[in-house]
Amino acid sequence: MTHLAYVAAAYAAAFLTVAGLVLWVWLDGRARRRELAILEAAGIRRRSAGEAK
Amino acid sequence: MSEQSLAIRKFSDLANPTRFLALSGAVWPWMAAATALFFAVGLYLCFATVGDYQQGETVRIMYVHVPAAWLSMMCYSVMALSALGTLVWRHPLADVSAKTAAPIGACFTFIALVTGSLWGKPMWGTWWVWDARLTSVFVLFLMYLGLIALNRAVDDPARAAKVGAILILVGFVNIPIIKFSVDWWNTLHQPASVIRLDGPAIDPEFLRPLLVMAIAFTLLFFTLHIVAMRNEILRRRVSTLRRLAARSAGRGTSGPVPAGVGEGHP
């Protein structure tokens, strides 16, 4: 009557969801910074880009 | 733009995306560290405390379920405030905030639904019932998905922001319904046991891990939200720069893009 499987499943589901969310946010940021770096390398930049990051 | 002008002197200064990037860049690593710390302590308490005399081990599901459910409602409230910011003050960051909060809120609602179901099966004998609490939270989940779909369906961020903000505010009526559904209707879901006028009705043994986990989840939400907002600002800068690059390529000229471009709505 301990229902440990239900507890484990609940924690696993919560962990996987949060891990997926963190991974998505992290990969999204990395891809956007890469795009900006490519644009900057091509000479396309904001006039204030030098000082303000 | 000098370092000096990036100083935040009043709250509305935060609405400047460049200032927001500078400030949030310094703050979010600390928030991430605090989140990890609170989760470490919280998860330890989750499994170090005793089981309930009736629920047994399944009481530990509550330490995830309840904070996730709270956060699912708080996230929507943050979106509603952002929607007001979009419609009333037209802060350039308000729409970025509302848009990026939706997927995070959907995830927290999903966690609340799944863990609740996994608690319901052994304790109630059923995965799901269509009572007022469960149904209204399910509606919240669908609203999050609808708002995400809307944001992706409309190309122009400014138009998506306006329509989205109105929908968010209309949907906010669901939040008090979720909160008070257990009082207004006869639900299988139990009424509030922590946030009530006569004080928490649960033992400190269970309250302690619950509160630490609630703080951990709240920190997790704000950390993810800030980082996602930074990503969204960068995404809009990229699309603005690409458009300007295409335009100047069409004219056969190239040169620096005017300052201020890519801040807020392109």
TrEMBL record, chain A:
InterPro entries per the UniProt record, alphabetical: Haem_export_protD_CcmD
Keywords: Cell inner membrane, Cell membrane, Cytochrome c-type biogenesis, Membrane, Transmembrane, Transmembrane helix, Transport
Subcellular location: Cell inner membrane
Membrane topology: Single-pass membrane protein
GO biological process: cytochrome complex assembly; heme transport
First-listed, main subcellular location of the protein, grouped into a coarse class: membrane
Membrane-crossing residue ranges in chain numbering: 6-27
Record flagged with keyword Cell membrane: yes
GO CC aspect terms: plasma membrane
Keyword Cell inner membrane belongs to the record: yes
Role of this protein: Required for the export of heme to the periplasm for the biogenesis of c-type cytochromes.
Family of this protein: Belongs to the CcmD/CycX/HelD family.
Protein name: Heme exporter protein D
Species name: Rhizobium subbaraonis
UniProtKB/TrEMBL annotation, chain B:
GO cellular component: plasma membrane
Principal location class: membrane
Membrane topology annotation: Multi-pass membrane protein
InterPro entries assigned to the protein according to its UniProt record, in alphabetical order: Cyt_c_assembly, Cyt_c_biogenesis_CcmC, Cyt_c_biogenesis_CcsA/CcmC
A Pfam family that the UniProt record links to this protein: Cytochrom_C_asm
GO molecular function, one term: heme transmembrane transporter activity
Gene Ontology annotations of biological process type: cytochrome complex assembly
Membrane in keyword set: yes
Domain named Cytochrome c assembly protein: residues: 12-189
Transmembrane parts of this sequence: 20-50, 70-89, 101-120, 132-151, 163-182, 206-227
Annotated localization: Cell inner membrane; Membrane
Keywords of the record: Cell inner membrane, Cell membrane, Cytochrome c-type biogenesis, Membrane, Transmembrane, Transmembrane helix, Transport
Function: Required for the export of heme to the periplasm for the biogenesis of c-type cytochromes.
Similarity remark: Belongs to the CcmC/CycZ/HelC family.
Protein name: Heme exporter protein C
Species annotation: Rhizobium subbaraonis
Gene name of the encoded protein: ccmC
